[in-house]
Amino acid sequence: MQVRSLFLLLALILVAATAEAGKNKKEKAKKDGSKCEDWRWGPCVPNSKDCGLGYREGTCKDESKKLKCKIPCNWKKKFGADCKYKFESWGGCSAQTGLKTRSGILKKALYNAQCEETVYVTKPCSSKIKSKSKAKKGKGKD
């Protein structure tokens, strides 16, 4: 019985500590001092090269702020990391170009980013036929 009571007491302390931590975060955001609600945010600018940690600048009336941000290094799309799209399936392979295409419709624009409503991306067609022929050649050598 004492073990159960001790466990219950520890659970209550943990819940109280978690609630207090959440409250402190909210108070910190309020202590920012800004009453401006119409912030305009620029793109995330990496500290070096074209990806990784960086910052974005925001302005509102006479105020300005910098926020930390990150551009994933595998994100090489021309439409930027602040524009989120819902993509359809890849289309068929074009024999003329050797590329597949798919389109994406804008789902969300973060930090008031200027995003295109629809974007198109391409990638080279897979070479499954070549890999099968290599496999046949490999079997014939054994």
Short description:
The protein is α+β, with helices and mostly antiparallel strands. 30% of the residues lie in helices and 32% in strands.
Estimate the helix proportion, in percent: 25-40%
Overall average residue pLDDT: 77
Weakly predicted, low-confidence segments: 24-31, 130-135
Q: Quick one: biggest sheet?
A: 4 strands, antiparallel
How many DSSP E strands?
Answer: 7
- Quaternary structure annotation: single chain
**Alpha carbon gap, first and last residue:** 72 Å
The backbone outline, from C-alpha atoms, is flat
Explained architecture:
The structure is a single chain. With 142 residues, this protein is α+β, with helices and mostly antiparallel strands. Among the domains are: 36-72, Single Sheet (Heparin-binding Growth Factor, Midkine, Chain A); 74-126. It is 30% helix and 32% strand. The strands form two sheets. Strands 1, 2, 3 and 4 form a four-stranded antiparallel beta sheet that branches. The chain is flat, with a radius of gyration of 26 Å. Keywords: Developmental protein, Disulfide bond, Growth factor, Heparin-binding, Mitogen, Secreted, Signal. GO terms for molecular function: growth factor activity; heparin binding.
